[in-house]
Amino acid sequence: MRRYPHVPSTEDALISRCQVLEGLLNRAAQADNLVAEFDSIRLLLETLPLATAEFSLAVNRLANARHYLESGEYGAARYELRLLRGGVAT
User: Fold this and answer.
1) Which of 8, 9, 6, 14 is nearest to 88 (CA)?
2) 89 CB-near residues (< 8 Å, 6+ apart)
3) For residue 60, what are the CA distances in angstroms to 7, 20, 65?
4) Would you report the helix, strand and coil content of the chain in percent, each value rounded to 5?
5) What is the pLDDT of residue 35?
6) In angstroms, rounded to a whole number, what is the distance separating the alpha carbons of residues 52 and 38?
7) Amino acid 60: pLDDT
8) Coil, helix or strand for 45?
9) Dihedral of CA 32/77/62/26: which sign?
10) How many other C-beta atoms can be found within 10 angstroms of the C-beta atom of residue 67?
11) What is the DSSP string of 31-71?
């Protein structure tokens, strides 16, 4: 039987993107990359089989993170991303 390498699920991809974004927030000099990261996370959220309430909460957390980023509150932005990541991983 032929084995295939692990193909990441959409949830794994979202968690990975959140981790990348958290890392970028640690290096605010790369702020031009952040908008694209937020957009890619939003697209991943739209592909997940989430109930309406779960999707709304996830999108709200992402919007909060983006707002905090724009306000220069990087710690709060990372916190929202961790909440988003944790909510999707369960």
Assistant:
1) 14
2) 11, 15
3) 28, 19, 9
4) 80, 0, 20
5) 76
6) 20
7) 96
8) helix
9) positive
10) 13
11) HHHHHHHHHHHHHHHHHS---HHHHHHHHHHHHHHHHHHHT
In whole angstroms, give the CA distance from residue 79 to residue 61: 9
Residue appearing with tokens 């790369």: 30
**Which tokens sit at 64?**
């909060």
pLDDT of amino acid 63: 95
pLDDT along the chain (90 residues), means of 10: 58 77 65 75 85 93 91 87 80
CA-CA distances (angstroms) from residue 13 to 44, 61, 66, 77, 89? Answer: 8, 17, 19, 19, 11
Domains observed in the chain: 10-89 (1.20.120)
Answer yes or no: are the C-beta atoms of 25 and 84 closer than 8 Å: no
Q: Note the pLDDT of residue 1.
A: 46
Residues 6+ apart with CB under 8 A from 56: none
